[in-house]
């Protein structure tokens, strides 16, 4: 985004700078010429391409009822081309002029995107035909051969660029490479995949995926907190040409193609291009009640007209206000496969200088001075949340991220906002990018009433801490009702925890003006430490908070512990433990406080990898200073034990046993065990109806290893109450 050129950027591309050996590639629309015959040298006179393997046709299985669009949940797109989601296999069939002979014929696939395809940028992807597909990595294998045809299963990378790729089939001959001619019918769109565990936008709940990806209508809540109104909005992400229009937005934003696999980057540039300020983006905002030469914001019923008009005219569409920006943004996100929802905050603060307080300046008579007062509180404000992991932040801050396309304030020089982690906003950890302080202030700012004295000094008259961000809502999953999500963003209004989060935000560098504008001083003479006991899943454990008072003062601290269950990607699912306590801190001494976490508190909500994330925030009451600490921890998941009996020789029967002891205080039901070992045994499955508490299961398997050498046996156990239970064993298979 930093390499933005002037207003005449379309007319003439600047010459290459000395910094790049290669022009930047930021258009999905542009193409390069791909030679149909790439000669290795001089071509002998008798050379006839028809003598070699020759592609007659490619069948893409691209109709809505066919396997690809069905399996990839893309059958709703009104688009004749193949649309697949990344990190998941899809199929194509190639018809040759004669049967394919693997011993002598060599062909491969090439996927290209943009004007300057390069392998290291992920914009040129050659795919050789192999024997196995590795999850989440590019590859292809033959799954069916018949006469002159072969059917391929192709796996795309789970981090692949999102966009429209061109497909070529290349055949090797001794004199050069023969390629299929450019044919747009073979173009393949690749989208984000919330169904794929390796994808950064993976969402584990099918009902939520149906709502946040596949639902093409929604509800906008508006009005004000005492009079909530609602209206429907048509997102229309599957309508004709909408997918192309959404890809065009990324071209318009000049997002490098190589960055288009990253949902963080896509959301950040999209939040800028949705509004027309500073980049001629999609919608021109207007809040002044005059909508000359345009459509009044309240007249739109959905996103499709706006996106199609922008796609054809390339000029901002007039006019929008916050729910229009949010509605169009939601269409963009869902269309590309990023789970998204439209959120409304009632009494949303627009904190002009991000000092976490809304300064309302009163004149002599106590009336608000409109000239001097720059901050404002909106009756309601709509933004979006997009679901993704945040590998750029510490663990615990993935999940819902605020993105806002409404132009309110500039961020890094442009009108854009987000993605900002909702979890970071809740706990006041606003040091994490992007724009968390602004969003924090939108839902948490204090309203400060200042009176201007004659000599120019300002006196604080009153502080209202409960007005801003009173209610935050979104449409419920699978219905048209309202779901309140205020507690995702903030603690109970007026609670100790809420004030602690605010003071944490201050400590993390959010400006909060005091009347003297003093710099915020942290508490230096008290240290706080957090220890989490390592235990096996199913046990109670304790969390210990240790305070070290290094001063000669006696202090008391108000502390709050929050325990959250997180996905292994760092995305928070639930807060399962809340505990507030007061600590007396004697001079020059340490005191520790144990909080017991019972298995019954976490087992019902536990996720696959049994990961927790703890926040502790404490205020030293005498000084008002804040201590804050966070820690991720995981329970020990019991392993499977694998053993072999007798000799292990290729071609001879051997015996493998798998053992598992149930650690939980409950019976495990409908347990599936799997065992596999490439070259030793094919995947075997066994179902067990029940494994009682503390009992041990033993499963014995006989097999005949095929290949000598060092092999690996891998076993897994799965049931509703327990996942990610694995075992493995290296086995040396002897030669016979």
TrEMBL record:
<feature type="binding site">
    <location>
        <position position="446"/>
    </location>
    <ligand>
        <name>Ca(2+)</name>
    </ligand>
</feature>
<keyword id="KW-0963">Cytoplasm</keyword>
<dbReference type="InterPro" id="IPR001102">
    <property type="entry name" value="Transglutaminase_N"/>
</dbReference>
<dbReference type="InterPro" id="IPR023608">
    <property type="entry name" value="Transglutaminase_animal"/>
</dbReference>
<protein>
    <recommendedName>
        <fullName>Coagulation factor XIII A chain</fullName>
        <ecNumber>2.3.2.13</ecNumber>
    </recommendedName>
</protein>
<keyword id="KW-0808">Transferase</keyword>
<dbReference type="Pfam" id="PF01841">
    <property type="entry name" value="Transglut_core"/>
</dbReference>
<keyword id="KW-0964">Secreted</keyword>
<feature type="compositionally biased region" description="Basic and acidic residues">
    <location>
        <begin position="1"/>
        <end position="13"/>
    </location>
</feature>
<feature type="domain" description="Transglutaminase-like">
    <location>
        <begin position="314"/>
        <end position="407"/>
    </location>
</feature>
<dbReference type="InterPro" id="IPR008958">
    <property type="entry name" value="Transglutaminase_C"/>
</dbReference>
<feature type="active site">
    <location>
        <position position="381"/>
    </location>
</feature>
<keyword id="KW-0479">Metal-binding</keyword>
<dbReference type="GO" id="GO:0005576">
    <property type="term" value="C:extracellular region"/>
</dbReference>
<feature type="binding site">
    <location>
        <position position="493"/>
    </location>
    <ligand>
        <name>Ca(2+)</name>
    </ligand>
</feature>
<keyword id="KW-0094">Blood coagulation</keyword>
<dbReference type="GO" id="GO:0046872">
    <property type="term" value="F:metal ion binding"/>
</dbReference>
<dbReference type="Pfam" id="PF00927">
    <property type="entry name" value="Transglut_C"/>
</dbReference>
<dbReference type="InterPro" id="IPR050779">
    <property type="entry name" value="Transglutaminase"/>
</dbReference>
<feature type="binding site">
    <location>
        <position position="498"/>
    </location>
    <ligand>
        <name>Ca(2+)</name>
    </ligand>
</feature>
<dbReference type="GO" id="GO:0005737">
    <property type="term" value="C:cytoplasm"/>
</dbReference>
<feature type="binding site">
    <location>
        <position position="444"/>
    </location>
    <ligand>
        <name>Ca(2+)</name>
    </ligand>
</feature>
<dbReference type="Pfam" id="PF00868">
    <property type="entry name" value="Transglut_N"/>
</dbReference>
<keyword id="KW-0007">Acetylation</keyword>
<feature type="active site">
    <location>
        <position position="404"/>
    </location>
</feature>
<keyword id="KW-0865">Zymogen</keyword>
<dbReference type="GO" id="GO:0072378">
    <property type="term" value="P:blood coagulation, fibrin clot formation"/>
</dbReference>
<dbReference type="InterPro" id="IPR014756">
    <property type="entry name" value="Ig_E-set"/>
</dbReference>
<keyword id="KW-0106">Calcium</keyword>
<feature type="active site">
    <location>
        <position position="322"/>
    </location>
</feature>
<dbReference type="InterPro" id="IPR002931">
    <property type="entry name" value="Transglutaminase-like"/>
</dbReference>
<dbReference type="InterPro" id="IPR013783">
    <property type="entry name" value="Ig-like_fold"/>
</dbReference>
<comment type="function">
    <text>Factor XIII is activated by thrombin and calcium ion to a transglutaminase that catalyzes the formation of gamma-glutamyl-epsilon-lysine cross-links between fibrin chains, thus stabilizing the fibrin clot. Also cross-link alpha-2-plasmin inhibitor, or fibronectin, to the alpha chains of fibrin.</text>
</comment>
<dbReference type="InterPro" id="IPR038765">
    <property type="entry name" value="Papain-like_cys_pep_sf"/>
</dbReference>
<feature type="region of interest" description="Disordered">
    <location>
        <begin position="1"/>
        <end position="34"/>
    </location>
</feature>
<dbReference type="InterPro" id="IPR036985">
    <property type="entry name" value="Transglutaminase-like_sf"/>
</dbReference>
<keyword id="KW-0012">Acyltransferase</keyword>
<comment type="similarity">
    <text>Belongs to the transglutaminase superfamily. Transglutaminase family.</text>
</comment>
<dbReference type="InterPro" id="IPR036238">
    <property type="entry name" value="Transglutaminase_C_sf"/>
</dbReference>
<keyword id="KW-0356">Hemostasis</keyword>
<dbReference type="InterPro" id="IPR013808">
    <property type="entry name" value="Transglutaminase_AS"/>
</dbReference>
<dbReference type="GO" id="GO:0003810">
    <property type="term" value="F:protein-glutamine gamma-glutamyltransferase activity"/>
</dbReference>
